[in-house]
Amino acid sequence: GEVCTMINKKYSEFLPSMQSAEDLVAQVEGLANNIDLLKAGIENEVQRDLNVAVAEFTELKQQLERDTLVLSVLKKLQEFDTAIKECNSALLEKQYVTAAQQLEKARSSLRSLESRRGFELKILKALGTELTVQTQNIIYHLGEEWQKLIVWKLPPSKGSSSLEAVVLSELHLHTVPPQDEDTAVPPVAAVLQALAVLGELHSKLKDFGQLLLQYILKPLISHPSLQPVPEEQPDVFILRFRSQEFALDESSPMEVFDKIKLVFEVLHKHLLNVPLEQAGEGRKEGRVTLAELLGELIWEELSDCLIHNCLVNSIPTNSSKLEQYKEVIESTEEFEKALKKMQFLKEDTTALLKYACNVDSHFANKKCQDVIMAARNLMTSEIHNTVKITPDSSISLPELPDPGSGDHLKMHSPSNLLHNGTVNLGSESRLSPFTLSLPTCRISSSVQQLVELAYHTLLEATASTDLCCVQLFDCVRNIFQLFYEVVPTYHRENLQKLPQLAAIHHNNCMYIAHHLLTLGHQFRYRGTGVLSNGAATFVDLVPGFRRLGMECFLAQMRVQKGEILERLSSARNFSNMDDEENYCAANKAIKQVLHQLRRLGMVWQDVLPVNVYCKAMGALLNTALAEIVTRIAALEDISAEDADRLYSLCRIMVEEGPQVFTPLLEEDKNKKYQEEVPVYVHKWMTFKELMIILQANLQEIVDQWADGKGPLAEEFSAAEVKSLIRALFQNTERRAAALAKIK
C-alpha cells in the first residue's frame, strides 16, 4: 500500500506540471504564429515606410546645407557692400587709410565668394567691376594728394641731366602741416599708408627714386660745381641747386658724400621718416620706414654711380699717393653710417666701404687699365714714325733709387742698369760693352715708348705692396703678349705690302726681344720679395718675339723673290738673243729687276741693321743671278751673236748689281759693302764663271776646268759644262776632244 501511495503522490505531483508544460507549448505555438504575422507585416509595410523616411532625411540635410551656403554668400555680399559704403564715406572725409583698408576688406570678401566651387553668380562680375572702379577712384585721389605733397619743377628739356637742366630743377615738399588748421590736409603719413595698403606705394616710390637719381643724386656726383640749396618755408620745403663758377674738374669723394648726405637728411626730415604698417610682405616686424623702402629701390644704382664716377677717379695712379687715401676710406665709412642711421641703408650694406678699402687692388687695376690702354694706343699707331737706336743709346728712365745700402750689389745710376742692356755683373769680370747691345737700326718710336712704359710700370711695381706688385708685373707681361697678338693682325695689310714697314716691324720685334732678356733681371735687387726671387722673368717671351720679327720679314722676302722671278720669266728664256725682239725683252727684264733691287736698297737704307741689310739684299740679288744662270745653262744652242749679247746682259748685272747695296745714308761709307758683295751673294762666282765661258774658246774652257780642279769646276758640274760646250760650239773633233777632258 505504501508503494501505491508513493506512486499516487508522484502522479498527483506530475499531473499539474505536465498540464503546465502543455499550456506552455500551446502558448509558444500561438507566439510563433504571431511572429510570422508580424514578420509578414514588417516585410510588407514598415520596410517601405523606413526607406521613405531615410530619403526624406537626406533631402532635408541637403536643403539645410544649401540654405547655410546661401546664407554665408549673402553674408559675404553684405560684408562687401558695407565695406564699399564705408570706403566711400571715408574717402569723402579724406580718411585715406580707413578707405584703403575697407577697400581691401571688400576685395577679400569678393575673393572668398569667387573661390566657392559650383557657385557662379552672375553678380560676381558686376561686383568685380565695382571694386575695380572704386580702386581706381581711390588711387586717383591718392595720386592727386601725392602730387600735392611732392612737386617736381623740371626744365622743359625733360630727360636731360645736363648741368644747365639740373640748375633749373627744383623739388618742393608740401609735407609740413600748416600751423593754424588742424588737419584739413591729410598728413603725409596717411597718404603713404593708404598707398601701402593698396600695394601702390612701390611704384610711386620707384618713380620718385628715378627722378631723384636723374635730377638730384647723379648730377651731384658728376658735376663738381653743383651745390644743393635747401630752403625751409612755413608750409613748404624747397630743394634748389646752384652752380659754382670756380669748381675743380673732379670733386673729392668727401665733398660728394657731403652733398648726397645733405639731400638725404632733408628728405629724411621732410618725407622719408614715416613709419608704415607693412602687413603681409613677409616682414616680421611689420613696421618699416619710407626711407628703407626707397633705399631698397635706389641704393644699388646710387652706389654703382658713386663707385664709378667718384671713387674710381679718386684712386691714385701713383703708389706714393696711396697713403693719403685713408681719408677717403674714413669718409666713406662715415657716409655709410649716416645713411644707416636714417635707415636708408640696411645694417649689413658695405658696398662702398668694401670698394674703398680695396684700394690697393683698385690702384693696381686702374694702373693696369691705364697701362694697357696706353700700350694698345701705341700698338695701333703708325709703324713708320721711327727713331734711330745705336749700341750706346739707353732707355730714358728716371734715376732709380738706391736699392738700400745693406745690399751687396750697388747700382749707381740707370746707365749701368739699363745702358742698352749692358749688365753690371758686380765683379771684375765685365762683359764686353757690346755683348748684349743692339746694332744700329731704326725702330718705331711707339715701340720705344712701349718698352719705356714697361720699365716705368715695373719700377712702380717694385714700390708697391705685394698684391699690387704681382698685378703690375702680370700687366707688363700682358703688354708684350698683347703686342704679339695685336700688331701682326692690326697692321697685317701694310706689313705684307710695304717692305719698309716689314723691316721696321722686324727691328721692333728684335728690340723688344732684346729688352725682354734683361727686363726681369734688372729689378731683382729692388723692392720686396715678389720680383726679387728671380721668378719675375720675361726670358720665355724672347724666342716668340724673334720668331715674330723673322717670320714677317721672311714673308716679305718671299714676296720680293717672287717678283724678281716673275720679271725674269718675261726674258724669253734668254734664247735666240740675235732676234731683236727677244733681246729687248731680256734687256727690259734685267733692267726691271735692278730697278726693284735699287728701290728696296733705298727703303731699307738706314732702317735695317747693316748685317741684316746685306744678307737680305744679297739673297735677293742671288735669286736673280741664280735664275739667269739656270736659264742660260739650259740653252741647247747659242750662236756667237747670242753669246755676245748674253755676255753684255750679264755684264749689266755684274756692274750694277753691287750698286744696290746702300745700307748707310753716307754714300762714301757704302763702298765697303759694295766690294763685299761676293760674301753675301752665294752665286756671284758662278755668274762670273758663266760670263767667262760665254767669251772663251774651247782651250780656255778646258784650262778653266783644269781636270776638275780649276775655278770652273768649283761652280759647275761636268754635265753642265759639257752642255754649255755643245750649245756654244759646233760639232767638230776639237769639240769632241775638249768634251773628253771634262769629267
Automatic annotation (TrEMBL):
Residues 588-742 form the ZW10 C-terminal helical domain. GO terms for biological process: cell division; endoplasmic reticulum to Golgi vesicle-mediated transport; mitotic spindle assembly checkpoint signaling; protein transport. Residues 437-566 form the Centromere/kinetochore protein zw10 C-terminal domain. It is a peripheral membrane protein. It comes from the Eukaryota. It is found in: Chromosome, Centromere, Kinetochore; Cytoplasm, Cytoskeleton, Spindle; Endoplasmic reticulum membrane. Gene3D superfamilies: 1.10.357.150. Belongs to the ZW10 family. The keyword Endoplasmic reticulum applies. Interacts with NBAS and KNTC1/ROD; the interactions are mutually exclusive and indicative for its association in two different vesicle tethering complexes. Component of the RZZ complex composed of KNTC1/ROD, ZW10 and ZWILCH. Component of the NRZ complex composed of NBAS, ZW10 and RINT1/TIP20L; NRZ associates with SNAREs STX18, USE1L, BNIP1/SEC20L and SEC22B (the assembly has been described as syntaxin 18 complex). Interacts directly with RINT1/TIP20L bound to BNIP1/SEC20L. Interacts with C19orf25 and ZWINT. Interacts with ZFYVE1. This is Centromere/kinetochore protein zw10 homolog. GO terms for cellular component: endoplasmic reticulum membrane; nucleus; RZZ complex; spindle. InterPro entries: Zw10/DSL1_C_sf (IPR046362), ZW10_C (IPR048343), ZW10_C_2 (IPR055148), Zw10_middle (IPR048344), Zw10_N (IPR009361). Keywords: Acetylation, Cell cycle, Cell division, Centromere, Chromosome, Coiled coil, Cytoplasm, Cytoskeleton, Endoplasmic reticulum, ER-Golgi transport, Kinetochore, Membrane, Mitosis, Phosphoprotein, Protein transport, Transport. Residues 2-84 form the Centromere/kinetochore protein zw10 N-terminal domain. Residues 142-379 form the Centromere/kinetochore protein zw10 middle domain.
